[in-house]
Each structure stands twice: as C-alpha cells, then as structure tokens.
Design goal:
447 residues; DNAb Helicase, Chain A; Rossmann fold; 18 helices
Length: 447
C-alpha cells in the first residue's frame, strides 16, 4: 500500500483545498487566482470541478459564494448530493486565511509542473525505447515538450472546449483592458498596422521582394520599433548580413545619419552626437542577433525557446535557410525542401506563440511583365510558401525600374494574402540614405 502511495504523481491536497477555500471565503482574491491557475493544475478531480465552476462563473461576472457555486455545479452536472455541500463547507473550514492565497497557488502550480515533467519524461523514455525516430527528431520532440511545460501549457493532445473558451475570454479581456483595436505587435508604420492589426501571435508573415527593394530595411524598422516600444525580446536571425552590418543599419536608422558616412567613419560633430544617442537608445532594447548562416528551423526554434520573454522572430531570409533533414533529403528537389521549411516555420510560430516574420526572394517572373508589381505566383521555388503563410507582403517601388518615375522613393507594400483581414496596398516612403521606411500622408487603399 505504501509503495502505491509513493508512486502517485506529485500533488498537494492541502494546497488545492486552501486555494478553493480562499476563493469561497473571499471572492476578491479570485481575479488573482484565475490569472495564475487553470483547471488542469488540480490533481483531485473534485477540486478540478469546483475550480472550473468558479472560473466559469467569474468569466460571466456572476456572484460567487458557496450557495451559487453549488447551484452552478448542479447545472454543470458535477454536483454530488452526498458530498458536494459538505465538501465546500469543509474547504472553508480548513482554510486558515485567504491572505496567503497566492502562496497556496504557487504550491499548486509547482506540483502541477512536476506532474507534467514526469509525464513528459515518461513519454520521452517511451519514444527512445521504441526507437520511433532518429536522435535529432527525438531531441526536437523532447525540447518541444519541455518548452510547453515551461510556458505552462499542454504540448499537444485534445483540449476541452471549456479550457479554450476560458483562454479566449481571457484574451478578449486583455484586449479590452488595453483599450486598443490592434491585438498584435506594432510595426511602427501606422497604415500597415491598420491593415494587419499588427503582427499577431502564432502567425507566419512573409515579406517578399526583388533584391535591393528594401526587405531587410523594413524588417529592421519593425525590429527596432518592437524593441523600443515593447518589453519583449526581438530575435533577428540574419543568414545574409553580418551582425556588424545590421548594427550599422540600425544605428543609421535610429540616428538619421547617412549610412555611407557611417560605414566610412566620415562623421561630423553633429553626427557623433546623434550616433551616441542612437546607441544609448538601442542599448535599452532587447534585440538579439544571430548571424550564423547555416541554421535550420529546429536550431532557431531551440534558441528561441531559451528566451524568457520572446515577442517577435525575424528571419532574413528564407532561401538561405538549411533543411532540417539529413542525407536522406539529398534527392529531394528544392521546392520540396522550401515547402518543408515554411511548414516548420508555421509550426514554430504556433509553438512559440509569437509572430514570425520571414523574408523571401522573388523569382524573375515579374521582370518580363509590363506591370512589374509582384504577385503570389512570383514567390520563388514553392507555392507552399503562400499556403503556409498567414500574411504575404510584397514591396514594389516604381523608381527601382524607372529612373524617370514621378516619385521614385514611394513604395507600395502590397498585401496579397491576409488570413484575418482584407488584401490591398499600403504606401511607404523609402529613405535610401538611412535605409529606412516611414508612412507618408497616404491612406490604405483596397484593390
């Protein structure tokens, strides 16, 4: 008997009871509790049912006390006439005080995390013993499970609709409290934000253009703005440019110092003042750069999982990325490899729950057309890019092709795919000497 008890998964019956008792004694503590706990954090099914009932009532702003909770448990079908009433009274009786409720919450969370860790370890051991994959694949699966535990969520499996509605309600409440209609991270370009509602969690955003059109510059614009105006970390993976080149562009962008003078070190006294201010501003951000040119999606995913407060991932650019496969993949064509990479990027965005902005080259198909504006069919090497991306953006500047253009620096940001909104175009102003964009006095136009 003692051996069976010892093999139980970690839990604290007293901690769970104290949390529930505190919520019944003093409903004022409920907002703090529901922010930190979910029903699955409770080990005893009866405790889980009670918490789920209170959670649902709180979401609907209903009055919470022992009588109303019992009534709602009847409605939910989890009421036991022989035990429920007495158990609720017992919870209130054995709870010493609701003042320590957050300490009780920490106990419950800690035990729940230990249970998930034990379950993940058992699954990983089973996969290894079964020999169901190669070492690299098993390591990726193991990292994904551990990362999910660290984030306080399930890695996979069927999730009850009640849990999903609770999470969705929390998200709506968060957006409502922000008083903003834009749920995603701002790009710093107001018209683009209005069209996309920002860069949203779990989305793969593709930014494509011909070489020299300003893809990297726009990506750096977005990285700089996100780094300055959020408390989140921005991860920038540069497979083409070195860290020194990227930093130079960021300083030129922030300081408004001509990039050529900055590159040559030919700075005037006023330039130095602005460069110092720009460096101080950049140092207050948490932008992290990796210029390893041989990274795979799995490598990037593993690096990002170790970042505590990640907000945005930017990759420059898709066609330079390495396949995650091995020698078996040698006979696959480039289209299939790119398709696998974009699928992995979409999974990474969902896994990390952050927007992933990936830059991409275009084929030369648009060069042979009279209207050289890019379209989805121009995406280089694979139609799967279009399929996996939530948002596809193209950059087009008439002055790139026509020296006699009326406004050579006016750039069209063409929204060719937008899973959560309308397509169309946004006008941006290209400032070549600072390799940066800003929003001109033009409005978003639907096509």
């Amino acid at each position: 008997m003692d051996e069976l008890l010892a093999r139980q998964l970690p839990h604290s019956l007293e901690g769970e009871q104290a949390v529930l008792g505190s919520m019944l004694i003093d409903p004022r503590c409920i907002p703090e509790v529901v922010e930190r706990l979910r029903p699955d954090d409770f080990y005893l099914s009866q405790n889980k049912d009670i918490f789920e009932t209170i959670y649902g009532m709180f979401s609907l702003s209903q009055t919470i006390d022992p009588v109303t909770v019992l009534d709602q448990m009847r409605v939910n079908g989890v009421y036991d006439a022989n035990t429920s009433r007495g158990y609720l009274l017992q919870l209130m009786d054995i709870t010493p005080t609701s003042a320590n409720v957050m300490e009780y919450v920490d106990i419950v969370r800690d035990k729940a995390m230990l249970r998930r860790l034990a379950e993940a370890a058992a699954e990983i051991t089973a996969m290894v013993q079964e020999g169901s994959g190669e070492a690299g694949d098993l390591l990726e699966a193991a990292e994904r499970r551990i990362y999910a535990i660290r984030q306080g969520r399930s890695e996979d499996g069927l999730v009850p609709i009640q849990t999903l509605t609770m999470d969705y309600y929390d998200r709506l409440d968060e957006l409502s409290s922000q008083g903003s209609s834009m749920p995603g991270i701002s790009t710093g370009l107001s018209e683009l934000d209005a069209a996309l509602s920002g860069l949203n969690k779990g989305e793969l955003i593709l930014l494509a253009a011909r070489p020299g059109m300003g893809k990297t510059s726009l990506a750096l614009n977005i990285a700089l703005y996100a780094g300055k105006h959020t408390s989140k970390t921005v991860a920038f993976f540069s497979l083409e440019m070195s860290r020194e080149q990227l930093v130079g562009r960021l300083i030129s962008n922030e300081a408004f110092v001509d990039g050529k003078r900055l590159y040559a070190g030919n700075l005037q006294e006023d330039d130095w003042t602005r460069v110092h201010a720009a460096v101080a501003s950049l140092n207050r951000t948490d932008i992290r750069v990796d210029d390893n040119g041989s990274l795979t999606v799995a490598d990037m995913n593993a690096r990002c999982r170790r970042v505590k407060d990640l907000g945005l991932v930017i990759i420059d650019y898709l066609q330079l990325m390495q396949s995650s496969g091995n020698e078996r993949r040698g006979n696959e064509n480039r289209q299939q490899i790119i398709a696998d990479i974009t699928r992995s990027l979409k999974i990474m965005a969902k896994d990390l729950n952050v927007p992933v902005l990936c830059l991409s080259q275009l084929s030369r198909a648009n060069e042979s057309r009279s209207d050289k504006r890019p379209m989805l069919s121009d995406l280089r090497e694979s139609g799967a890019i279009e399929q996996d991306a939530d948002v596809v953006l193209f950059l087009y500047r008439e002055g790139y092709y026509n020296d006699a253009a009326e406004d050579p620096n006016l750039t069209e940001c063409i929204i060719s795919k937008n899973r959560h909104g309308e397509t169309g175009k946004v006008f941006l102003r290209w400032l070549p000497q600072y390799t940066t964009f800003h929003t001109p006095e033009r409005r978003y136009e639907e096509e």
